[in-house]
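User: I'm curious whether this sequence folds into something compact or stays loose and floppy. Could you predict its structure so I can see for myself?
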Amino acid sequence: MDFETVTPEDFGRSLTGIGLNLVVRDVKRLAAFLEAVFDMKTHRATADFAIMTYHGEVFQLHSDGTYAENPLLGLLPEAGARGAGLEIRLYETDPDVAAERAAAIPDATLLQEPTDKPHGLRECYILCENGYAWVPSRRL
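Assistant: Here's the prediction. I'll summarize afterward.
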């Protein structure tokens, strides 16, 4: 599917499995962060929406304004973290590389340095400016 030309209707009908929509304050800013730190690809980025791809997976970014009629909008905090309790695990990203890249981005917060875990993964925790926890992980 060509994410640059697909109609919204055809894109919506193509979605299967589990979907992830992140409601964010600044779509283009988070898309740039995800590209810079995790090598993701951005498609159709506007101030309100972007399609993101990561190793064959697809998810969406939406601005607060696009959720005006959505029941979740009233639950979003005006400031601070939004993603408390959610870990977005990226099993195809080297945590050492991602941590180094994130260190160069003022709005990124490295919650945990790359660490070898007893469950067989090396991982770190990086918060984006919206408070979502991104966890790049590699098998040991």
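Summary: The two ends are 34 Å apart (CA to CA). The mean pLDDT is 93.
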